[in-house]
Amino acid sequence: QNDHQCVNFIVEIDEKLKESLKKLITDARYFSVLCDGSTDSGVLEEEVFHVRFIKHGVPVTAFLSLQHLEAGTATGIIDSLRKAFDELGIPEDIWKKRLISVGTDGASVNTGKANGVIAKLKREEMMPWLVGSWCLAHKLELTLLDSLKEEENLLAVKDLFQGLYKHYKYSPKALRELKEIAEALEVKVLVPSNILGMR
């Protein structure tokens, strides 16, 4: 009935969920980690980690951690991964032996042959068996965007949609007028969204 007790409930739930996840990970013979970076509303770099393992013959994906990045470098991401497992109470020798794959987007900080996350984990963290995989959906999107560059008509449509998005994004007056027109016509209007980027 008050915020203090609510905090206690959330902390207890968090502890139980962590215990459950720790058991699932330590019981798994092998697992993979999926990671991606983002910038939060405070313009701070964050890295989200998910873990994927087999439970009773079925693949399971579970949220592992959201970590603040001290630096958006490969070393910074590896340090955040280490911290994620440490906060869960999984010793480094356990997760390093059982981690077999890391899934990322195609950014060079992750996939760079010399100094990317996967290369550094293999070389500096002594995990030569590690397999790096590039997100299929991300690869497909980049392929699609590359193919659009060769079609003039599709480029024109893309530019039109992007122009509409920017017009209403950066002009509150124009957006308000669009909503007023929609109300007058008694129709629902969808505000143009950004067609570029991963979303």
Q: Provide the structure class.
A: alpha/beta
Tell me the Rg in angstroms.
22 Å
- The number of helical elements comes to 8
C-alpha end-to-end distance: 38 Å
Q: What kind of sheet is the major sheet? A: 5 strands, mixed
Show unreliable segments: none
Q: Taking all residues together, what is the mean pLDDT?
A: 88
Q: What is the H/E string?
A: HEEEHHEHHEHHH
Can you put this structure into words, describing what you see?
The chain has eight helices and five strands, in the order H-E-E-E-H-H-E-H-H-E-H-H-H. It is of the alpha/beta class and 199 residues long. A five-stranded mixed sheet has the order 3-2-1-4-5. Helix 2 crosses helix 5. The longest helix has 25 residues. The chain is extended. The mean pLDDT is 88.
Task: Label this structure with key terms.
8 helices; extended; 199 residues; 5 strands; five-stranded mixed sheet
Topology (SSEs and partners):
Elements: H1 3-27, E1 31-39, E2 45-55, E3 58-68, H2 74-88, H3 92-98, E4 99-104, H4 108-111, H5 117-123, E5 131-134, H6 136-148, H7 152-169, H8 172-185
Parallel strand pairs: 1-4, 4-5
Antiparallel strand pairs: 1-2, 2-3
Helix pairs in contact: 2-5
